[in-house]
Amino acid sequence: MGFFSWIVFGALAGWAANLVIGGRDRRRQGCLVSVLVGVVGAALGGLIYRLTTGHEKDFGFDFPSFGVAVLGAIVLLGIMRLVVGLVRRNPRDRL
Fold it and tell me: CA–CA separation, 37 vs 73, rounded Å?
């Protein structure tokens, strides 16, 4: 895929992942964050796919690649929200 195809693919994957993991109190993320989450999530999804199946995933504009990219973006968003939640927690609240 070309550069602009990756941007469109990443934006769609990041948007879909944000819809899935969002919940009632989800914060809307910007377009740039959606693209970054989608592209990095696609790479993470490809890594997870390769580790679990032993086969490499060739990303094209098809539904299996989109599914892998969205799953990777969901994992990435989950990790990001976990880290942000731990950072925002006040140490005095533990007492």
Answer: 6
CB-CB neighbours of 75 under 10 Å: 16
> pLDDT band at residue 57, thresholds of 50, 70 and 90?
low
Give the DSSP letter of residue 47.
H
pLDDT in tens, 12-25: 888 888 888 875 44
Rounded to whole angstroms, the maximal C-alpha distance in the chain is: 53
Q: What is the DSSP letter of 2?
A: -
- Specify the 3-state DSSP secondary structure of 27: coil
Under 8 Å CB-to-CB from 31, ≥6 apart: which residues? 11
Distance CA 16, CA 9 (A): 11
Query: Which among 16, 59, 23, 58 has a CA at the least distance from the CA of 37?
Result: 16
